[in-house]
Amino acid sequence: KNEVEQSPQNLTAQEGEFITINCSYSVGISALHWLQQHPGGGIVSLFMLSSGKKKHGRLIATINIQEKHSSLHITASHPRDSAVYICAVDYGGSQGNLIFGKGTKLSVKP
Amino acid sequence: DAGVIQSPRHEVTEMGQEVTLRCKPISGHDYLFWYRQTMMRGLELLIYFNNNVPIDDSGMPEDRFSAKMPNASFSTLKIQPSEPRDSAVYFCASSSPLGGTVYGYTFGSGTRLTVV
Q1: Low-confidence ranges of chain B (pLDDT < 50)
Q2: Contact A18, A74 (CB under 8 A)
Q3: What is the pLDDT of residue B92?
Q4: Residue B96 has what pLDDT?
Q5: Is the peptide bond before B81 cis (omega within 30 degrees of 0)?
Q6: Which residues of A touch B5 (CB under 8 A)?
Q7: A45:B106 CB<8 A
Q8: B5 φ, ψ to 5°?
Q9: Are residues B31 and A103, on separate chains, in Cβ contact within 8 Å?
């Protein structure tokens, strides 16, 4: 069964802290996506990774293909980073389709 | 491009009524997905289309749910009759291949459905 596991489920941090959210998957993938969803809001794609590392502003995403593991890091966290972060994997094939983790709810306190 | 456009943003309806959710994908994207998000189950795939043809509808919960894609720029998800347990946020997403088996996805803002 293709599963995506995220940890932690919930995370509370103080403003300015460095944050790490983890994602593990069970079989080989063609790409991994990190998504962000603010309360009551839509889903925004933050990163798509198939190898290595990507950085956008204070956000960094890494993936280790051999270990089937990805991390999303937030440096100098801010209350506006409070959201649910969802890991989704694409197992590839002839069509694209995502398998989602259950999400990590992040709350950054001022 | 305005992105994936969903309507309505919010829908409140009475049990037993028909509900129609609408989606306009990004022009040129050849895949369209309907997802349902609930607190208990997270995001679940309901159905997806490739070039307007339904490919996998195994996630559609029951016969009360139906989806169509009459052309490349429009899709509907219909629930008839609606039930309180259908209350959820329904997302539409579209994707296109970026190279090999890698696809880029764009999500709509979702439709929050409440069935009372």
Answers
A1: none
A2: yes
A3: 96
A4: 84
A5: yes
A6: none
A7: yes
A8: -110, 125
A9: no
